[in-house]
# Entry
Amino acid sequence: MSQLKQTLSDTIKTSMKARELERVKVLRNVQSVVKQIEIDRQTELDDSQVLEVLQKQLKQRHESLSIFTENGRDDLASKEQFEIDIINEFMPKQMDDAELAALVNAEIKEQGATSMRDMGSVMGVLKNKTAGRADPALISKLVKDALQG
# Structure
């Protein structure tokens, strides 16, 4: 069992003992998504794959949060924010903008990338280097700006 899945399971048990029912509900939901993907793929997910699932769950909740906020549904928005906060506990420390920009520039130099044709190879390496620690959309924007600029 991956370390992240074990941590998730242990946190559920701890939350159950503390009778934190809303927290347990969110954690079980995440755990069920992970298990469903394992059943569908007929393989056990490793930590990086579990991180991808967590990122996808966060992205969905952020999208819902913005929709609820735009429509004045503060009750639903606060519920989504609560879920985001809980899932974020399992995410690695996020890279700051300066650190990410430096990594992007270093990778572009290392590969000798000069045009947008090189973006795919640069993104492939950066995606692995930043797994779970940076938003892929932000990385893409930084790479695009660097290659066009």
Notes: The chain has a mean pLDDT of 91. The first helix runs from residue 3 to 17. The radius of gyration is 18 Å. The helical segments are 3-17, 21-41, 47-70, 74-88, 97-111, 119-129, 136-148.
